[in-house]
Amino acid sequence: MKTSIAIYPGSFDPVTNGHLDLIERGEKMFDLLIVAVLRNTEKQPLFTVPERMEMLREVTGKWPDVKVDVFEGLLIDYARRRGAGVILRGIRAVSDYEYELQMALMNRKLEPRLETVFMLPGEPYSYLSSKLVREIAQHGGPMSGLVPAAVEQRLRAKFS
Ligand code: PNS
After folding, report:
1. Does this model's pTM top 0.90?
2. For a designed S-S bond to 51, which of 47, 76, 122, 126 qualifies (C-beta 3.0 to 4.6 A apart)?
3. Domains and CATH numbers, the chain
């Protein structure tokens, strides 16, 4: 039974099939899953926030209970504003664990009512990351199976 609002925060620069796998799993668990793109002034992203949101909307459009949004500032403040009780994050491998643990515990310290839920993406995505996808695209490598077709097109256009 689905009973809550969850936020799936991230950079999504760009959204990969690994992100989509997690969104599909989260969509089944929560009443509303908000995929929230961080507007980060420190990072130099490949895609602008509107571009990333457009791609996310394109590839999640088939799920009515998945919404795409942008946030800045603290995630806990955004979660409060959206009335969310859960933060959804993916853990691909042990190497993700330390960073995720630190973030989850800090978020719990800042807002004890907010629960972080970790999910495992499917094994074929356990070595996939936006960073590697950007690198492959930059050098004209094959991207099939890594990102949705619409995202592949945008990546090719960026580096053409
Ligand atoms: O996809 P990413 O870059 O791993 O996502 C990181 C993200 C967006 C989840 C994290 O940087 C974040 O929540 N930033 C918002 C600022 C914040 O709340 N910082 C304190 C976290 S303990």
Report:
1. yes
2. 47
3. 5-159 (3.40.50.620)
